[in-house]
Amino acid sequence: MSDAAPPARTAAVIPAAGRGVRLGPGAPKALRALNGTPMLIHAVRAMAASRAVSLVVVVAPPEGAAEVKNLLDAHALPERTDYLVVPGGETRQESVRLGLDALPDDIATVLVHDAARPLVPVDTVDAVIEAVRDGAVAVVPAVPLADTVKQVEPREKGEPEPVLATPDRAALRAVQTPQGFARDTLLRAHRTVTGNVTDDASMVEQLGEPVVVVPGHEEAFKVTRPLDLVLAEAVLARRRVTDGF
């Protein structure tokens, strides 16, 4: 028998414990239907589409973990990928940490993916994984900004806001997910960084570790408002025609 260690694996953690209030009342955002299938299932399939991803951990609402497990069991998912559902926490950061705690020891690369980005192409997922495997400790997919950006002095909602500066958009990127990490680095960030953070890469930045950007994709947009659902349905309709998706 060989004493060689088994190859390190890649897992994706999908925090899906939020309510998604900007989409209005009803089911949590991740469980909203998109072309008749919950967004969460689309997001899980997007991660599992990568042959490099061998495990997907879904972090569910604490009171809805059983429902999410039943949901995964009821939909066709790639047989080569394992799935695990764990209850989430009060915040996104806590939910991601609970997902990390559930990973087996042989996971070396971790993706963290928004359930509300159901249409990310597999080429983007693979590019993130490849960059981590090539030595980057933190990788984010991102796209250039199409609009001019203004830095303003925030005021109460509806009040005019004075413009403070106009950043050069050529040096700015809109960040997407999945974000990829060396597991040890992401664990250290979650053990060290506290306070309000918008994404896991910013936590790694606070450690003083480098974060690199790879090209994202316009179809990896976040479904946040009702109009985003319309756009997502249109993307799926095009895929059915052109790709048989």
Structural account:
It is a single chain. The protein has one domain (about 10-140, about 175-240): Spore Coat Polysaccharide Biosynthesis Protein SpsA, Chain A, CATH 3.90.550.10. It has seven helices and twelve strands. The chain has helices spanning about 40-50, 65-75, 90-100, 120-135, 185-190, 200-205, 225-240; strands spanning about 10-15, 35, 35-40, 55-60, 80-85, 105-110, 140-145, 150, 165, 175, 180, 210-215. The strands form three sheets. Strands 1, 4, 5, 6, 7, 10, 11 and 12 form an eight-stranded mixed beta sheet that branches. Helix 5 packs across helix 6. The longest helix has 17 residues, at about 225-240. The model has no long low-confidence stretch (mean pLDDT about 90).
Topology:
Elements: E1 9-15, E2 33-34, E3 37-38, H1 39-48, E4 53-60, H2 65-74, E5 82-87, H3 92-101, E6 107-112, H4 122-133, E7 138-144, E8 151-152, E9 163-165, E10 173-175, E11 179-182, H5 183-192, H6 200-206, E12 212-215, H7 226-242
Parallel strand pairs: 1-4, 1-6, 4-5, 7-12
Antiparallel strand pairs: 2-3, 6-11, 7-10, 7-11, 8-9
Short structural description:
It is built from 7 helices and 12 strands. It has 245 residues and is α/β, with parallel strands linked by helices.
Question: Which labels suit this protein?
Answer:
245 residues, Spore Coat Polysaccharide Biosynthesis Protein SpsA, Chain A, 8-stranded mixed sheet, two-stranded antiparallel sheet, 7 helices
